[in-house]
């Protein structure tokens, strides 16, 4: 598809969007493993009476809720998690020439 990459530019380039199912699957698996590991640390922090501190990269994916008796509970922000998962495996290549997706991918390889 022809696009103008920057608002300040008056020329257009060609963008080809790809989905790499293998890379996407591996990245989703790694994300979920790391996310669940981060979530599993929270009960240990709470048992020690510490405030639950989430890693910055997970702060939009995990939510600290106040549960019964003033205790904290960690839950997933499933809406944000789904958005992040949907992006895994997608990449694009920009070219100044109108190559086919196969030609662009062959040049990239």
Fold and architecture overview:
It is a single chain. By secondary structure, the protein is an alpha+beta fold. Helix content is 41%, strand content 23%. It contains 3 helices and 5 strands; from the N terminus they run E-E-H-E-E-H-E-H. It has helices at 21-47, 78-87, 101-108, and strands at 2-3, 13-19, 62-66, 72-76, 90-95. A 3-stranded antiparallel sheet has the order 1-2-5, with helices on one face. Strands 3-4 form a two-stranded antiparallel ribbon. The radius of gyration is 21 Å and the shape is elongated. The model has no long low-confidence stretch (mean pLDDT 84).
List keywords for this structure.
109 residues, alpha+beta, two-stranded antiparallel sheet, 3 helices
Q: What would a concise description of this structure say?
A:
The protein has helices at residues 21-47, 78-87, 101-108, and strands spanning 2-3, 13-19, 62-66, 72-76, 90-95. By secondary structure, it is of the alpha+beta class.
How are the secondary structure elements laid out?
Elements: E1 2-3, E2 13-19, H1 21-47, E3 62-66, E4 72-76, H2 78-87, E5 90-95, H3 101-108
Antiparallel strand pairs: 1-2, 2-5, 3-4
Listing every helix as H and every strand as E from the N terminus to the C terminus, the arrangement reads EEHEEHEH
- Averaged pLDDT: 84
- Main β sheet profile: 3 strands, antiparallel
* Helicity level: 40-55%
Record the strand order, biggest sheet. 1-2-5
Which value, in Å, is the CA radius of gyration?
A: 21 Å
Structural class: alpha+beta
Task: Note the beta-strand portion.
Answer: 15-25%
In the predicted model, the low-confidence regions spanning at least 5 consecutive residues are none
- How far do the termini sit from each other? 21 Å
Count of extended strands: 5
